[in-house]
Write a structure and sequence with these properties.
Length: 85
């Protein structure tokens, strides 16, 4: 049974807002796993962005697809995309 106490993971997720304060984050990609989505949700809310789920970032995803997304034409800045290890 879970308690109502805020755990370290939640505090770290909220900490991303401060950590990326000076970064021009305009797009957030995430694995569809719940834990990854929970990690980037505070940052997305702070920036007024929608989190884009990408199956290639899942545990069994294809890293080649992710590399194409990150190096494709028109991408001027890297995006924030936590990956499941």
């Amino acid at each position: 049974m879970r308690s109502g106490r805020v755990g370290g993971g939640h505090a770290q997720a909220v900490g991303l807002v401060d950590r990326f304060r000076d970064w021009p984050v305009t797009r957030i990609l995430s694995s569809p796993t719940i834990r990854c989505l929970q990690t980037v949700t505070p940052l997305a809310a702070d920036r007024g962005l929608q989190v884009e789920t990408v199956d290639a970032l899942a545990v069994d995803g294809d890293a080649r697809h992710v590399l194409r997304m990150l190096t494709g034409p028109g991408l001027r800045r890297p995006c924030c995309a936590p990956m499941v290890k």
